[in-house]
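Contributing new complexes? Match this layout with zinc ion.
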Amino acid sequence: MRRKIRVGGIVQGVGFRPFVYNLARELGLSGWVRNDGAGVLIEVQGEDLDAFVRRLKSDAPPLARVDGLSVGGIAEHVGEDAFVIDLSGGGAVMTAIGPDTAVCADCLAEILNPNDRRAGYPFVTCTHCGPRYTITRKLPYDRPNTSMAGFVQCPTCQSEYDDPADRRFHTQPNGCPVCGPQMTMKTSEIVDRIKSGQILAIKGLGGFHLACDASNETAVSALRERKDREEKPFAVMVKNVSAAKALVEMGETEEQLLSGRERPIVLMRKKPKTGLAKGIAPGLKWLGVMLPYTPLHHLIFAEDPDLVVVMTSANPGGEPLVVGNREAEERLGGIADAIAAHNRDIVVRADDSVMRVIDGAPTFIRRARGYVPVSIKLPRPVPPILAVGGYLKNTVCVTRGDEAFLSQHIGDLDTPKGLRFFEETVTHLLDILEVEPELVAHDLHPDFHSTRFAQSLGKPTLPVQHHYAHGAAVMAEAGLEEPVMALCLDGFGLGSGGGAWGGELLRIDRQGFERIGHLAPLKQPGGDLAAREPWRMGSAVLYALGKESEIPIKYKENNGSQMISQVLDKGVNCPETTSCGRLFDAAAGLLGVKPKASFEGQAPMLVEGMVSAPKVLEGGWRIDNGVMSMLPTLAALAESNPQAGAELFHGTLVAALTDWLVWAARQTGLKTVCLNGGCFLNAVLVEGLTQSLREQGLTPLIARQSPPNDGGISLGQAWIAAMRADG
Ligand code: ZN
Ligand code: ZN
Ligand code: FE
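Output block (do not edit by hand):
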């Protein structure tokens, strides 16, 4: 018997041909395997062909993803007695680039073995692990198109690379201490400097980190002082899972996520006594932890297994991550005491991914290194579309066939460097996917840089309302095109007729959306300032409740509190907003939790952290003609202590949203509801709401492959463009 087998998916550059070769030899089969433009093609003949086909899927190498496997019978060859790797198809027709992956166990064993030729070498890699996306300039994925181009393999490395049975067969970034990249600083010196309290800039996979000893109070506060003076939490790196368990509460899902090959930062509940410096995550109940993922990280912890190292993105001033060596000297020179760089260029910038387990499953806060450019599967092939996202926490999205490729986290488009990164990312993503978009989707907001960029491309464009996109992102993930309800709760998105939206109840179908409800508008005194100063939202609520006389007393510490009633009287710079983020800010302001936040979303996070048992205030909300108001609850918060108030707010919000959605389900005759927007990173809200919606016979869906926050906007835009293009 002889068969022709076509394998599609992620099967190139991941050690698939050596795997096929070894499998065929093990089963005593003859034939050949080769790469081609569509994946891997195999001809095989012999006895045990069923086992061969079965194991092609079940035993595939760790980084492979077999999406399609078709088997056809063909005529036997006479006189063929071996199985070979046929290189005529070229090792150079990569149709996809893999994500960057944590160093594998085999490579790790080599660098920790003093007798290995790669002992202590921080750039070990093989077909099962190492850098991919961040070192690749363009297709095909071949050494000359990566930042390994300048490194010529030594004879020993070359023989690994050429040997089909070797795990480094065609490993493009292969190298060793003789021929590969080098660090500018010895590992022992890095560790000594960290332990002596210095701040180090360390070049990694997708960018530089700023690192220091997480238990050293002086070092951590110096880092905060020099970096940005904000209170944004720092992530820490520890040697392994058991070291992490000394710091945080960890369930099984968290443990798997933390030690998975993508190696994201995982947010987990901090234990009461960690011995870490107070400045790491001030006031927050969570700590972001990650495990070593580059060989260098492992070598650092081999020097001192007890270290806990702050590893924060080197992105001073909220600008994109530093990637270049000269750039590091310019931008990090004033922050770091020393720079540990290397001579392998980072071609594509990628931050660490950040995740949190919500309702029993991983949720993205930031999707980047380790996950990009893995695609999100769509339910059917769609036209080639580019979607450019929004403004904050931006990503872009490109469709090819039935796949949507979400870019890595780009960040806020509010600095020239951020804009350049955005444009580079669009170009690079289109290049490596070889896609020429037919349609460009963008936000409704005319002033966003992403909108102007979309309009400058000279292609048909489609403006998409922000919350419509949030809802559609969940539809894309779930493969839905039929009408659904969407509850979108977030900070800010421009509404259809202008105005600030952010607490929206929509009905979405293939052709468009209808706003069937929204949160009762709150005044936002000071405009955008109110997003950073929850006392302003608290004041707006007190004013609405007729308690303006309390404002100057309650908020006497805050500049402007004596005047704010007059500001509200006159309505100067007091736009109305239906934002749920601002509703959370109002709750925080009323509870006095954080009158002035240091970054958007900080106050709501603090309020969530206070909840242990949510409680419902009967009569705490009103629904009138689709408009839901929490004003009675807010009135109660004004009289409440912080923890009791936080619990009352969360419990009542869940009950109110459920009530609202049950009403909407009756109105629309629909049962499925997509929950999306940044507020759905709040685990208390998600867990409470999904459970109570299920109890009401509704089907809640949440984002799992894209971030619920604005990092998922581009996916939703793309899916809307696809539905409408074909509808
Ligand atoms: Zn490896
Ligand atoms: Zn070598
Ligand atoms: Fe949003």
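Reviewers usually confirm one structural detail per submission. For this one: The domain at 2-85 is CATH 3.30.70.100 (Alpha-Beta Plaits).
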